[in-house]
Backbone:
């Protein structure tokens, strides 16, 4: 029996259907183009990117927003240790410019947080604009003693407890704990194999 894939569908104000679903391999090129458009060429240099480099996103928590067969938004979550406390790092959240006033970002956030809680995750942290993310329950109340690799704006380091007290005592560096991505594993294996091969002059 084939398992049914749950997809959230909402109607945008202009009546175009919006589906929030798990990211597919066919979404990757469009996702990367969207991230480039939203965050610019230097997005790979940002502090939170250090937590994602070479890692796979948390299982079931890579989401795409699709309207009329086109990717209009993306959001992923990643396993981290928040000063020794297991948590998820949310981001990047990106929505194409012409869809930003249609509730796409909020739909992605609501779906992602509900899915994270359903999977038993206890806390989420992110680096973002406090006025925007406050509507979802994020605040800096329990992140003041946490740090990120590289320079960052402390007022933008926010947390959300999916279970009461999950971020109590959070202190120290936020570090990645997720699985290495398959691509990274393959590169490492090739490098290791090359070291074992005899060199030819």
Residues:
């Amino acid at each position: 029996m084939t398992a049914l894939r749950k997809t959230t569908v909402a109607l945008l104000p202009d009546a175009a259907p919006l589906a929030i679903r798990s990211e597919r391999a066919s979404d990757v090129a469009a996702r990367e183009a969207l991230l480039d458009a939203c965050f610019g060429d230097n997005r790979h240099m940002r502090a939170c990117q250090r937590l994602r480099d070479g890692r796979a996103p948390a299982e079931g928590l890579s989401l795409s927003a699709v309207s009329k067969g086109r990717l209009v938004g993306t959001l992923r979550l990643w396993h981290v240790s928040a000063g020794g406390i297991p948590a998820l790092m949310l981001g990047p959240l990106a929505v194409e410019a012409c869809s930003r006033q249609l509730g796409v970002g909020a739909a992605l956030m609501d779906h992602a947080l509900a899915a994270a809680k359903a999977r038993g995750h206890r806390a989420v942290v992110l680096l973002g604009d406090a006025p925007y993310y406050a509507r979802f329950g994020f605040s800096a109340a329990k992140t003041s003693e946490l740090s990120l690799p590289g320079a960052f704006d402390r007022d933008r380091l926010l947390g959300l407890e999916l279970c009461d007290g999950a971020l109590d005592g959070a202190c120290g560096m936020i570090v990645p704990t997720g699985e290495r991505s398959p691509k990274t594993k393959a590169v490492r294996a090739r490098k290791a194999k090359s070291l074992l091969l005899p060199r030819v002059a």
User: Anything to note?
Assistant: Residues 104-118 form the longest helix (15 residues). The chain has a mean pLDDT of 85.
